[in-house]
Every structure is written in structure tokens, then in C-alpha cells.
Design brief:
globular, four-stranded mixed sheet, alpha+beta, 218 residues
Length: 218
């Protein structure tokens, strides 16, 4: 049996897991959660994941895990044919881990700060303070990419999959200026050219359409 992932397709963390699975040739059984209907707050899902977040992974032996970064590490460690996406080399792995934490603690955190009140109908615009936070995240990433093709070095890794899923969502709301952030812009294009990036397409389209419509209601 294939591992099962509970998800919503527009979610950047869910898309990061799908990109990772495609990259390693792993077929996941995908179960979409009706988030807006509160399915994630019902007892069956809370039994799997008390934090009621997505994605949640249930492996074929019943092992259950949530948080996209943890899931990506687990899937690559268990199912990938080699360690290219998450090397065993201590220093290479440490740098990838740092970038994953940068995603969860800075980039995705900034995205969530913007979209959550919009999602709940509390706002229909993006404040300048939040825009400045996004520009700061872009600037950090610009520095990380100095002398590097990918965010953690010269080879693509799960850190790229995690960050591109958050960054392309931010870009849909606050476009990346290629003149200010040329390295980020070039990296973005390289990610789009990866075969596995295709797994992100439907969800990104759904995210973009949903929030464009919400922000248009001014």
C-alpha cells in the first residue's frame, strides 16, 4: 500500500510534499480535507493529528506524521533511491535544515500572517508592514543564493521544494522584483523548470485564484 497524505491542494506545505514525492518517484494516496467545512476539526482527523494541520502523512504501517518539513525528510530518508535531496553529509544536511527552518519560521510564517485574516474574512488587503516583511524575506533569500544555484548549494534539495512552495505563493500576492532580487528570480525560474515542479501546479493555481478574488473585493 502507498503512504496516504491528507491535504488541501492550495496549501504550500502540502504542495512541497507533493513535489518531493514526485521527485523520488513515490506514488502517494491523496485524500483532500474539506478545510472550509471544518473536516480537520472532526474526531477522525483529530485522532490522526491533534494539531489539525495539513499535510498529515499515514504510512502503510500506520506510522503518522505531520508538518511538511518532517514529512519531506521522512519520505526522502525512507523511499528515495539515494540521499541527493537530503545528503547524509553533516554540513550539507545542516545547511538544508537551516533553510527548512527559514521557511517555517520566516517565509511561510510571513505568508500565513497575510493570508489567514483574508481567509477568515477579517481583511481584504495587504498592509504595508506585511509587504515589508515579505521584502525582507526576499532579501534574505537573495543573500542565501549568493554564489549558489540552489538555496543550500549547487544541488537541488528538499529545501528548494519547501521554499519554492512558499515563495511562489508570496509571489502571487507580492511579486518578486527581478531588479531588486535577481538571484531569487533566477532561482524561481530554475525551480519552475524542474520536472517535479509540475506537482505544484494545480494547487498554486487554486491558491492564486482564491486570493486574487478575495483581494479584489475592496
Amino acid at each position: 500500500m502507498a503512504p496516504t497524505v491528507y491535504l488541501i491542494y492550495p496549501s504550500p506545505p502540502c504542495r512541497a510534499v507533493l513535489i518531493t514525492a514526485k521527485a523520488i518517484g513515490l506514488n502517494l494516496a491523496e485524500k483532500e480535507i474539506k478545510l472550509l467545512e471544518g473536516e480537520h476539526l472532526q474526531p477522525p482527523y483529530l485522532k490522526l493529528n491533534p494539531q489539525h494541520t495539513v499535510p498529515t502523512l499515514v504510512d502503510d504501517d500506520g506510522f503518522t506524521l505531520w508538518d511538511s518539513h518532517a514529512i519531506m525528510v521522512y519520505l526522502v530518508s525512507k523511499y528515495a533511491k539515494n540521499d541527493a535531496l537530503y545528503p547524509k553529509d553533516l554540513k550539507k544536511r545542516a545547511l538544508i535544515d537551516q533553510r527548512l527552518h527559514f521557511d517555517s519560521g520566516v517565509v511561510f510564517a510571513q505568508l500565513r500572517r497575510i493570508v489567514r485574516p483574508i481567509l477568515h474574512g477579517e481583511k481584504n488587503c495587504i498592509d504595508q508592514k506585511d509587504k515589508d516583511g515579505v521584502f525582507e524575506a526576499y532579501a534574505f533569500l537573495e543573500e542565501f543564493l549568493d554564489g549558489k544555484k540552489w538555496v543550500a548549494g549547487d544541488a537541488v534539495s528538499i529545501a528548494d521544494y519547501s521554499l519554492i512552495s512558499s515563495v511562489n505563493s508570496l509571489n502571487a500576492l507580492i511579486p518578486i522584483d527581478p531588479k531588486k532580487y535577481p538571484r531569487v528570480s533566477a532561482w524561481f525560474k530554475r525551480c519552475e523548470e524542474l520536472p517535479e515542479y509540475e506537482a505544484n501546479g494545480m494547487g498554486l493555481e487554486g491558491f492564486t485564484t482564491y486570493f486574487e478574488n478575495k483581494l479584489a473585493q475592496v
